[in-house]
Amino acid sequence: MTATTVMFDAYGTLFDVHSAVERAGAPLGPLAGPVSQMWRTKQLEYSWITTLMGGFDDFWTLTERGLDFALARHGISDPALRSALLAAYRTLDAYPDVVPALERLRRAAKATAIFTNGTRAMVDAAIAASGIGPLLDHVVTVEPVAAYKPVAAVYDHALRAAGVAAPGDIAFVSSNRWDVAGAATFGFRTFWINRTGMPDEYPGRDPEAVLTDLSGLAAALGA
């Protein structure tokens, strides 16, 4: 089956979640790496826990809470630094392979989409900062479902929002292995962008291909 739509996760896949600290975190010194990693870990943890509890707080709120925890855990109280880091997060850097990959998919007549936990305001800001808007056909967020990946209902929402008839018509691309597992369970064709060389997990919910970046995606899709 040939996928008609290539759907990308945003954070960690198209946009570098650690670029906020790289750009605005100089005052953190040697704590920059640990703070950035804990910020991301808590952001995701909060999304899973709130969904499991049947609640929903938008992803920007969870992003703020994750940063607050990471700073407090490392003994940092600096309102100006907090504001600078959050401002930088709104305009995260796109990875250098993003534009060439999207351009190649467009030349191959593939529809392209983002499907993200992020709020529409968050992802719109990142898209504008990176200039990739003209290369996208759809931008889908989980907000209408009021739940987070990897709940099946959010992948069903993405399918419908992109106007695609069947899950197998979507090639879903993510750097997050748990997201790949959720999408594969729902029925999407999945491609794991393993940017950091992580070991595999979630056996039985396997991606169709594992790539180190987006440069080989079109070939993996046969595009």
UniProtKB/TrEMBL annotation:
Chemical reaction(s) catalysed: an (S)-2-haloacid + H2O = a (2R)-2-hydroxycarboxylate + a halide anion + H(+)
PANTHER family per the UniProt record, alphabetical: HALOACID DEHALOGENASE, TYPE II (AFU_ORTHOLOGUE AFUA_2G07750)-RELATED, HYDROLASE, HALOACID DELAHOGENASE-RELATED
Enzyme class: hydrolase
Family, per entry: Belongs to the HAD-like hydrolase superfamily. S-2-haloalkanoic acid dehalogenase family.
Gene3D superfamilies: HAD superfamily/HAD-like (3.40.50.1000), Putative phosphatase, domain 2 (1.10.150.240)
Full protein name: (S)-2-haloacid dehalogenase
NCBIfam families: HAD-SF-IA-v2, HAD_type_II
InterPro entries: 2-HAD, HAD-like_sf, HAD-SF_hydro_IA, HAD_sf, PGP-like_dom2, S-2-haloacid_dehalogenase
Keyword Hydrolase: yes
Alphabetical keyword list: Hydrolase
Keyword Hydrolase assigned: yes
Listed EC numbers: 3.8.1.2
Molecular function terms from GO: (S)-2-haloacid dehalogenase activity
Function: Catalyzes the hydrolytic dehalogenation of small (S)-2-haloalkanoic acids to yield the corresponding (R)-2-hydroxyalkanoic acids.
